[in-house]
Design brief:
Distance between the termini of chain C: 82 Å
Strand order of the largest sheet of chain A: 8-5-1-2-3-11
Low-confidence stretches of chain C: none
Number of helices of chain C: 20
Number of domains of chain A: 2
Low-confidence stretches of chain A: 1-5, 285-289
Number of helices of chain A: 5
CATH superfamily of chain C: Cytochrome c oxidase-like, subunit I domain
Shape of chain C: globular
Mean pLDDT of chain C: 93
Order of helices and strands of chain A: HHHEEEEEEEEEEHHE
Strand order of the largest sheet of chain C: 1-2
Chains: A alpha+beta, B mainly alpha, C mainly alpha
Number of strands of chain A: 11
Order of helices and strands of chain C: HHHHHHHHHHHHHHHHHEHHEH
Structural class of chain A: alpha+beta
Mean pLDDT of chain A: 87
Radius of gyration of chain A: 26 Å
Helix content of chain A: 25-40%
Strand content of chain C: under 5%
Helix content of chain C: 55-70%
Strand content of chain A: 15-25%
Distance between the termini of chain A: 73 Å
Largest interface: A-C, 94 and 98 residues
Largest sheet of chain A: 6 strands, mixed
Radius of gyration of chain C: 25 Å
CATH topology of the largest domain in chain A: Immunoglobulin-like
Oligomer: heterotrimer
Chain lengths: 289, 199, 661
């Protein structure tokens, strides 16, 4: 008897524990922004959730009221209006209610979409990101170093990611830092993110690219400026450059552990960025190491 | 069924036949959307020539102009066939229909010749996105014309066998709609693909 | 020796390793046994002739509707099993119930089957079963084309479903974005199956769109102006016109991918400057209107169900129709919201974000109008009404999260995450599926002549809806935890375990609900509760003025329509005798003749599609010739009609008690 009862305890904790604490744990990466981009997006998420929450509640309440009040039971005393099918004022009110709710969401949406498109620095750190089959390659065009499946970035400095792919369409997503952007073959798309405090964050490919796509993750190390320069010189000093042969190995569809290279051939990234929409840069970065 | 005072042609006086003509109009709108999508693809892909030829290098205006004239003439003969049917002349309707399908066939042959010479010069559609879009857009039109030719053959036989019944009149009218539609599409191909490509 | 090598090559092509997994072989054996059993049964009971004359060659819209419905329920089962396999795999971290390749195949077929081979035929089943009856017509405008549409759909469904036992399933997702769907990444025939099966079914869908558009515009009973047709018919009209403009871009997208794969073109490849983005655009120019193609018929069903079971006319008919039109119009201007993250720039994103939000206004108006319809009414809790009552609170959540997704910077965080998965299941299940099931229970007596048991129906409803909430609400939170769609499995320690477990439990509850529904249908068929009145729900529209099921010619006498809810008005004003005929008013009725041409044509398409799938061009040409032959046969055999003589009509109607004395 007691044994069977105890057998239920563990699953019960698992089942109810998760439902009672949504939004509290640090697992809710979207709710724990580590930078201004993610923070700004979270603010919009919260605002829109509140607005649509109001709409949901209004409709639920009306629904429940109607359902209780107007049931077809023998002794229901509620009025019965078999011909009521128009009410101009009511219809206009519904229209206005829906429109107002939308305007409240729409204005910050427009504002933020434009703001997030403008990088707040003329000299961001540039990282060229290439999605390869089941791994992410990060190249620092100024520092001339490259890493696979992890990278370091300084805090309090906007980072411009230039995304491309040598694989099917992939999406670069580090939810603690901000939303995603696609990495596509034959194109280079921009995304800027910034970390406002140091930490290690998880990122992943958010678009299906094949059987091992779910293992295509990377780690972001946001560190203070000094630590970052220290790390860069460390990698540069390792004297382990990426060669044509290593590049060919990287192109194979495999999952690899984190790797780092003290230098890399410049032709591994497209020469000229295309379809750039980020505003506020002093120069459009090109590949001249 | 039909009112004698009406000036409408017979295929419109019958309710069911006019419903079928309406259905064909709606089919043509879907075909229009199909061509619209292909045009959109072509316009975007026009500059994606890769290592292949540009439109300017590929196109030769002479044969295309001939194709255009042939197709425009066939539209005219198609109308003549319909006109003959309206004045109840079976031989005229069939004869003009045969002229129309003959012109259609020569159009298709010219186009095949154009494609074949491109391919023989090594410009297959594998070579670039532009060539893929070009062959597909123009080829889809050519495929439509070929279908139209097949249709015209069957229609000519049917009119020969059954004479000008309500049904064959309606079919001839629908065919004429289809043929004029292809003519209009070709005008767009001629300007959007060939003229602006050569310019 | 070459013959031996050729055979070996063929066997490898037809049976690659992924179709030799034990579970798939077991399913193959099961299906073979089932086919044999059915064949033996039909032979024993001598029903082949019956099957051929009554069903396979039929052009009767009511029978075609029933065939669509049965096919849709079978496909719901198939897609549901896929869903349960997906959820079983995700029940716990690092689960390997299936390999990643099989998982990819399963989610691909789940999406494809559910959208194209479950939801679409379910919608067409209800259109076919009811639209001509509601507008007072004897059939659709093009009955034979209607049969062609059905058989094209059926052979498309067979194509997709045979892929898992012959040649291998597609595995690039139901959107099958290139370049992943190109030969470089996706060799094998699976992707070809996807492209060709949708192409074949898509031709049928376009034909259905043309058919119902013309039917509704031209075949209405006298007096029934467009402002008097039931809102369900309006939804059918608008859905049909959406089909006409949405499906050709899909045809182009699929066709160009096929040209890339089978004929070596360079549209969406990485090499030769192909442009995958173009596919994405074309696909969603189709894909977004498709969402409304699926949900508008559900809106239409609810606009019939709510007035009937509230005993009140629909509140704000003009606003309801106007909002349907507004949604269909706006639906074409929103497709970029499926890929805000593809670098279109802020102005484009803002435009499409706002246009998406605008759709919420007409949708909100509809929500309130259904509630106001119930306000001041008398609500009867029948099974169709229960589905409607579950729809309102469910769909409003889906619509609300849709607005959140339309807020562009928010979408940067939701895109491709489980938040998105939860959202679209919330609207497609909570909208389309609830609506179609509501419609199925509502019109079942009219389609079959007997009613479905209410108690069992309520149980099926309760299980399905609670399972639905349990499955999809946790998925919103999984999205916030950073879980993305299509992951074959996931590591522990990310906090995803509990919510996934809940979601899986919910999915199985939903599955149980489906099984109860099947039991409900079989039980009700065994112990038939005949509907002798023809009007079991105290209905309002013309289909309830007919006996259940309607005779093959539907209306012995075409009604003169005077008001919007004509049958209700007849009952209120005591004009119900208007539907009866007498020996002096009866006329012979012309009905279209059955034809074998539709199935021949669809079979030719099927053969041609197989030829293209395996790149056996001789077979593709054979199929093409078959298509031409079938068309020629159909063209030369005149569009023939049969005449039902007046005596027969009188006799049939007399048996139904519908002859004036």
């Amino acid at each position: 008897m007691t044994k069977t009862r105890r057998a239920w305890v563990f699953p019960a904790i698992i089942l109810f524990g998760g439902l009672l604490t949504p939004g509290c744990g640090s697992d809710y990466v979207v709710f724990h922004p580590a930078g201004p981009v993610a923070q700004s997006e979270l603010n919009l998420i919260v605002l829109s959730a509140i607005v649509v929450g109001v709409v949901i509640v209004v409709i639920w309440v009306l629904w429940a009221y109607v359902l209780i009040r107007f049931r077809d039971t023998p002794h229901n005393t509620a009025p019965y209006w078999p011909h009521w099918q128009h009410h101009r004022v009511l219809e206009v009110m519904v229209f206005v209610f829906a429109t107002v709710a939308l305007v409240v969401v729409a204005i910050p949406t427009v504002h933020k979409t434009y703001v997030l498109d403008r990088i707040p620095s003329r000299h961001p750190l540039v990282i060229d990101v290439t999605s390869l089959d089941y791994k992410w390659l990060f190249e620092y065009p100024v520092q001339h170093i490259a890493t696979v499946n992890y990278f370091y970035m300084p805090t309090h400095r906007p980072v411009l990611f230039q995304l491309t792919a040598r694989s099917p369409l992939s999406a670069f997503w580090a939810p603690n830092l901000g939303g995603m952007e696609y990495a596509m073959p034959n194109r280079v798309l921009p995304l800027w993110l910034e970390a406002s405090h140091s930490g290690v964050f998880r990122g992943r490919n958010a678009n299906f690219t094949g059987i091992d796509f779910w293992r295509m993750t990377f780690m972001v190390h946001a560190v203070p400026k000094k630590t970052f320069s220290h790390w860069v010189s460390q990698v540069q000093a390792a004297k382990h450059p990426m060669t044509r042969a290593t590049w060919r190995t990287l192109l194979k569809p495999t999952v690899t552990p984190p790797l780092r290279y003290s230098n890399y051939p410049s032709w591994t990234f497209p020469q000229r960025p295309t379809a750039f929409t980020v505003k506020g840069l002093e120069y459009v970065p090109t590949k001249n190491p | 069924m039909s009112t004698t005072t009406s000036t409408l042609p017979p295929e419109f006086q019958d309710n069911m036949e006019s419903i079928r003509i309406m259905g064909f109009w709606i089919f043509l709108t879907t075909d229009l959307v199909l061509f619209g999508s292909l045009f959109a693809v072509y316009v975007v892909f026009r500059s994606l020539v890769g290592l292949g030829p540009t439109p300017h290098q590929l196109f030769v205006i002479g044969p295309v102009l001939t194709e255009t004239l042939i197709l425009l003439t066939s539209s005219f003969t198609c109308s003549l066939s319909l006109y003959s049917a309206r004045i109840n002349r079976v031989p005229g309707a069939i004869a003009w229909l045969i002229v129309t399908l003959g012109l259609g066939m020569s159009f298709v042959l010219l186009e095949i010749h154009e494609f074949a010479s491109d391919v023989l010069n090594g410009h297959t559609w594998h070579q670039s996105a532009f060539l893929s879009a070009f062959f597909t857009l123009v080829g889809t039109h050519g495929g439509h014309v070929s279908v139209g030719v097949g249709w015209a053959i069957m229609l000519a036989i049917q009119i020969g066998l059954k004479g000008l019944t309500l049904t064959t009149r309606r079919k001839l009218y629908a065919f004429a709609l289809y043929w004029h539609f292809l003519d209009i599409v070709w005008i767009f191909i001629f300007t959007v693909v060939y003229l602006s490509g050569i310019a | 020796m070459p013959i031996q090598r050729w055979t070996l090559h063929l066997l490898r092509l037809l049976f690659p390793p992924q179709v030799l997994l034990p579970d798939i072989v077991a399913i193959d054996i099961g299906l073979t046994v089932a086919v044999i059993v059915i064949g033996v049964y039909l032979t024993r009971t001598r029903r082949w002739g019956w099957l051929w004359h009554e069903w396979i060659t039929t052009v009767d819209h009511k029978k075609i509707g029933i065939m669509y419905l049965i096919a849709a329920l079978i496909m719901l089962f198939r897609g549901g099993v896929d869903a349960l396999m997906i959820r079983s795999q995700l029940i716990a971290p690092n689960a390997h119930f299936m390999g990643a390749q099989q998982y990819d195949e399963v989610f691909t077929t789940h999406g494809t089957v559910m959208i194209f081979f479950m939801a679409m035929p379910m919608v067409f089943a209800l259109f076919n079963a009811t639209v001509p009856l509601m507008i007072g017509a004897r059939d659709v405008a093009f009955p034979r084309l209607n049969a062609i549409s059905f058989w094209l759909f059926a052979f498309g469904a067979i194509l997709l479903n045979m892929s898992f036992s012959i040649g291998g399933s597609p595995s690039a997702g139901w959107m099958s974005y290139p370049p992943y769907s190109e030969l470089l990444y996706n060799p094998g025939v699976g992707e070809n199956y996807f492209l060709l099966s949708l192409q074949v079914a898509g031709i049928g869908t376009i034909a259905t769109g043309i058919n119902f558009l013309v039917t509704i515009l031209r075949m209405r009973a006298p007096g029934m102006s467009l402002s008097k047709i039931p809102v369900f018919v309006w939804s059918a009209l608008i859905t049909s016109s959406l089909v006409l403009f949405a499906f050709p871009p899909l045809t182009v997208a699929l066709g160009l991918t096929m040209l890339d794969r089978v004929f070596g073109a360079s549209f969406f490849t990485i090499a030769h400057q192909g442009m995958p983005m173009m596919y994405v655009n074309l696909f969603w120019i189709f894909g977004h209107p498709e969402v409304y193609i699926l949900v508008m018929p559900a809106f239409g069903v609810f606009s019939e169900v709510v007035p009937t079971f509230s005993r009140k006319p629909l509140f704000g008919y003009e606003a309801m129709v106007g909002s349907l039109l507004a949604i269909s119009f706006l639906g074409y201007g929103t497709w970029v919201h499926h890929f805000f993250e593809m670098g279109a720039g802020p102005s484009v994103n803002v435009f499409f974000g706002l246009s998406t939000m605008l759709i919420a206004i007409p949708t909100g108006v509809k929500m309130f109008n259904w509630i106001f319809t119930m306000w001041g009414g008398r609500i009867r809790l029948t099974v169709p009404m229960l589905w409607q009552l579950a729809f309102i609170p469910t769909f409003v959540v889906g619509g609300a999260t849709g607005i959140m997704l339309a807020a562009v910077p928010g979408d940067y965080q939701y895109h491709n995450s489980y938040f998105l998965i939860a959202h679209f299941h919330n609207v497609i299940l909570g909208g389309t599926v609830f609506g179609m099931l509501s419609g199925m229970y509502y019109w079942w007596p009219k389609m079959f002549g007997w009613k479905l048991n209410q108690r069992q129906g309520t149980w099926a409803f309760a299980l399905f809806v609670s399972g639905f909430w349990l499955t999809f609400m946790p998925q919103y939170f999984l999205g916030f935890e950073g879980m993305t769609r299509r992951m074959a499995t996931y590591p522990a320690g990310l906090g995803w375990t509990t919510l996934n477990l809940w979601s899986t439990v919910g999915a199985f509850v939903m599955g149980a609900g489906f099984l109860v529904m099947v039991y409900n249908i079989l039980w009700s068929r065994r112990y038939r509760d005949w509907d002798v009145t023809g009007d079991p729900w105290d209905g309002r529209t013309l289909e309830w003025s007919l006996p259940s099921p309607a005779p093959e010619y539907n209306f012995a006498r075409i009604p003169m329509v005077q008001s919007r809810d004509e049958w209700w008005a007849m009952k209120q004003e005591g004009r119900t005798d208007e539907v009866k005929i007498s020996a002096t008013t009866v006329h012979p009725i012309h009905m279209p003749r059955n034809s074998a041409m539709p199935i021949m044509l669809a079979f030719a398409f099927f053969v041609g599609a197989i030829g293209l799938i395996f790149a056996w061009f001789w077979m593709a040409i054979l199929g093409g010739l078959g298509v031409i032959a079938a068309l020629a046969y159909g063209s030369f055999a005149d569009y023939s009609e049969v005449e039902i003589d007046a005596k027969h009509v009188l006799q049939t109607e007399a048996q139904l008690g519908r002859v004036e004395s």
